[in-house]
């Protein structure tokens, strides 16, 4: 399809710019407010992205909390099969996904390929680990008693991923919690929203149930309000944080004494 179409008057008319949606409860969500995503490779607007509001963030958390009720009961083999399928789909969509990353981050093809190779390997590796999740029988002080330690999922996990290695850190931040029976709200970076959305689309295509993985993207000025609203939301139980924005979320989450797992950059 041509990038430029002719209007009825004979003048050139550009096709509408694509808008990246949010992903909430298994469906695309298109907020009225949007913002431009500028490609560093060209300096031009690559596409637009829906701007998550505090209400959108709350809806994502609620969807994840509802999905957790059934996802936590799935068997290890059910979760393993979804992860293996996701790895297969990610590999089959390699050119498409690499194109999003090149456009949004300006990365060279070898770096995009490396990201997808590692992200695919992460999915395969975690798939193999899922059936090994097990409890234990600890030694008891009283010989007439016995104990069992059971591993249970936390609940809703907030995942925050940066732009520089979007497929690696984005995939890793949601894959480990979901594999263990948790659900996730992935707060992607405004610099690479289409790349972030692609991760959710891969999981959804692989058969991940609605609400298990949700994606929100906000404009830079809304970061504090949206992130604080998610952290303060009661259903959310843990954070997977990466990068300097993860540092800020970690600082805010400490007020609620939450569980955190982070690979954090500098906080200026």
Automatic annotation (TrEMBL):
Signal peptide: none annotated. It comes from the Eukaryota. Keywords: Oxidoreductase. GO terms for biological process: gamma-aminobutyric acid catabolic process. Residues 33-232 form the Aldehyde dehydrogenase domain. GO terms for molecular function: succinate-semialdehyde dehydrogenase (NAD+) activity. Pfam families: Aldedh (PF00171). This is Vanillin dehydrogenase. It comes from Tolypocladium paradoxum. The lineage of its organism: Eukaryota, Fungi, Dikarya, Ascomycota, Pezizomycotina.
């Amino acid at each position: 399809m041509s990038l430029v179409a002719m209007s009825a008057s004979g003048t050139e008319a550009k096709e509408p710019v694509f808008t990246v949606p949010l992903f909430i409860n298994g469906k695309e969500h298109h907020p009225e407010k949007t913002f431009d995503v500028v490609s560093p490779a060209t300096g031009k607007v690559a596409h637009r992205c829906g701007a998550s509001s505090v209400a959108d963030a709350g809806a994502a958390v609620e969807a994840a909390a509802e999905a957790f009720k059934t996802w936590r009961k799935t068997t290890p083999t059910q979760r393993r099969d979804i992860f293996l399928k996701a790895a297969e789909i990610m590999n089959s969509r390699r050119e498409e996904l690499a194109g999003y990353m090149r456009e949004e981050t300006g990365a060279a093809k070898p770096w995009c390929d490396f990201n997808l190779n590692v992200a695919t390997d992460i999915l395969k590796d975690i798939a193999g680990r899922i059936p090994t999740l097990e409890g234990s029988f600890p030694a008891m002080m009283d010989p007439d008693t016995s104990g069992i330690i059971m591993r249970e999922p936390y609940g809703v996990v907030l995942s925050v991923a940066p732009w520089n290695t979007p497929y690696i850190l984005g995939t890793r931040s949601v894959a480990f919690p979901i594999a263990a029976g948790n659900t996730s709200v992935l707060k992607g970076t405004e610099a690479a929203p289409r790349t972030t959305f692609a991760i959710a689309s891969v999981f959804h295509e692989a058969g991940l149930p609605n609400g298990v993985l949700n994606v929100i993207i906000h404009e830079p000025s809304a970061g504090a309000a949206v992130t604080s609203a998610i952290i303060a939301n009661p259903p959310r139980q843990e954070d997977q944080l990466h990068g300097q924005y993860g540092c800020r979320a970690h600082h805010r989450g400490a007020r609620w004494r939450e569980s955190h797992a982070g690979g954090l950059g500098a906080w200026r």
